[in-house]
Amino acid sequence: MNKRQARLFAIGATAVSALAFLALTVDSHRQFDKLTNAGAITPAVTRGMNVWHANNCINCHTVFGEGAYYAPDLTKITKLRGTPYLTAYMRDPSKFYDESRHRRLMPKQNLGERDIADLIAFLDWVSNVDNQGWPPRPILVTGSTFPGTDVAVAQAAGTGAPPAARPVSGADDPAALGERLFRSVQPACAACHSIAPGVNMAGPSLAGVGARATQLLASGYDGKATDVAGYLRESITQPSAHVVPGAMYSANGVSFMPATYGKDLTPQQVDQLVAYLSSLK
């Protein structure tokens, strides 16, 4: 290739690259409203964004991968935690963990009810933005050392699987199918419940839940179930049928657990979840 040919090649390649860049830019702008869920930006969302910035939430938390990475990523938080839970948490975070053991993890911001509602509206808008699968998984906080997940607990213990985990034994095993549902149903049970003993997340640990259910049915139970399987089924489909007074998992007699599983799951799927939970030791 002589100098003239090299010059023409460089000019042509630059022109093609520029055209491709312009085409991609125009296409991105064409899709911005859809990708960013712009149609759902309400005055409450805008106010919530201002609350987010005014309280420097990004100094600890991240959204869309931007932030301090000190506290959990909140990009999809409203899909993992319902409004009642988030409202109660922001009113007084210290009720959700033992400060004497774990220090002050989340400061009490003394937000008003409107600020809390607007902040949740903002986070809900964030959670519905098409972020192409980012973050790949949420960062979860448990009742153990921050940050904790079942995987972290297993790694700390030097094991390859979380405590109380059971292997998937076959396609026809109800408990195995229930384990898959536990991790795949939306919202995922595993997003709020650990199966590691003593590791409480947004919901209590489910390790040994069958034995605890037996004790509960014998004393202090307010629901209608008469056996462990019935209690587990009731807990999945009617989570407010029995709540523990004073526990951090409910407010005003209403459980923070979504009450939608009874409609979203078939009776067979509920039975599979019950079989899996009954198998946890």
From TrEMBL:
InterPro entries: Cyt_c-like_dom, Cyt_c-like_dom_sf, Cytochrome_c550/c551-like. It comes from the Bacteria. The keyword Transcription does not apply. Residues 43-127, 173-281 form the Cytochrome c domain. One of its GO terms (molecular function) is heme binding. Keywords: Electron transport, Heme, Iron, Metal-binding, Signal, Transport. The keyword Transport applies. Pfam families: Cytochrom_C, Cytochrome_CBB3. Residues 1-20 form the signal peptide. PANTHER family: CYTOCHROME C-553-LIKE. This is C-type cytochrome. It comes from Pseudoduganella flava.
